[in-house]
Amino acid sequence: MKLNIAWRDGILRRWFVALLWLALLPAGLGILSATPCLSQTPPSAAGGELVIGTKVAPPFAMKDENGHWSGISIELWQHLASRLKWNYRFVDAETVPALLDGVKAGKFDAAISAISITAEREQTMDFTTSYFYAGTGVAVQADRISNWMPVIRSLTSWSFVQAALTLLALAVGAGILIWLFERKANDGFSGGAVRGLSSGVWWSTHTMTQRAAGGIVPMTLPGRIIAMIWMVTSVIAIAVFTAGITSTLTTKRLHGMVNSVSDLSSIKVGVPAGTSSEIGLSRLRIVHSLWPSPQDGLKALRAGKIDAFVYDRPLLAWVIRQQHLSSVEVTDLMLEPQRYAIALHADSPLRKRLNVAMLEVVESDWWRDTLFRYLGTTR
């Protein structure tokens, strides 16, 4: 009897252990499949190499006649890959859209050049943390003689006309008031409504410009009170008008035709095709023409085909400096801030490790020295 009980207990124990293993097996498999280190191992760890797409965009990515790459972004990737012990090779693309399409199609494991993060791009791919903050710059002709055109445009603008009409309305209002109070007691403002009103406006205009009005002076107490108020008001109005016009014309003369975003709406603007600068101008609803490259756009600017050329500010300044274009300058206007980052395909296993290494590198002295070597600044 005891043997039977022991035998049954052994059978039951074995059945219990078997059921317990069956219950824990799916959970164990789930844990193994969710282990990050198994799914996020980069190709280089398995003995392969990463394919890194890039595009010529001085000073961030440059290629010499021997096929060797250099530049801010190139040196950054080399530094990161060295820290992470990754093998890689560079493959170039013609345009930024081609570079991004290569990443999304799996042709490139990552892409680095002067690639800006935009909402549209973020929808279909991933980016690392930013390593450089820039903005969209505007290049214009530096020829001071040609800068008289903005002055002429300012004098014929609606803002100038509004200011002039405001002064004229003030003079007419003062002339009407002085006529109402002086027409019966002062021969200078008598002789009918037309003659009296014209005399009043003539007097107020001369007073505003601080000139004598042919000996006509107010004689009544109310007329003299109006005259004193108008004298003070006209002096202030003329001073404000003169200061505003002088400031505007001086700014236009010294800085050219582009001093604000609104100025771009009234001139011919060019931009490189397929760039974030083109997206920015479209978002601002500024009419623009497309050019194959920054060099072509600057050539069109010098030839007078366009009035301004818009592109990433550091790249624009680099091209102008390298080509010694003394007749072209970058204005102080900066349209939209941009952030450069490394482009990756969605849910890339490289992103986490790159972000950690990137945050360490961009705070280092090495990064500041690199920026200074290429840009003459540490930002």
UniProtKB/TrEMBL annotation:
InterPro entries named among the record's database cross-references: Ionotropic_Glu_rcpt, Iontro_rcpt_C, Solute-binding_3/MltF_N
Protein origin, superkingdom: Bacteria
Membrane topology: Multi-pass membrane protein
Solute-binding protein family 3/N-terminal domain: residues covered: 49-378
Domain Ionotropic glutamate receptor C-terminal as annotated: residue spans: 49-369
Subcellular location: Membrane
Statement: the UniProt record of this protein carries the keyword Protein biosynthesis: no
SUPFAM superfamilies assigned to the protein according to its UniProt record, in alphabetical order: Periplasmic binding protein-like II, Voltage-gated potassium channels
Protein keywords: Glycoprotein, Ion channel, Ion transport, Membrane, Receptor, Transmembrane, Transmembrane helix, Transport
TM stretches of this protein: 158-181, 225-245
Name of this chain's protein: Transporter substrate-binding domain-containing protein
Organism: Afipia carboxydohydrogena (Pseudomonas carboxydohydrogena)
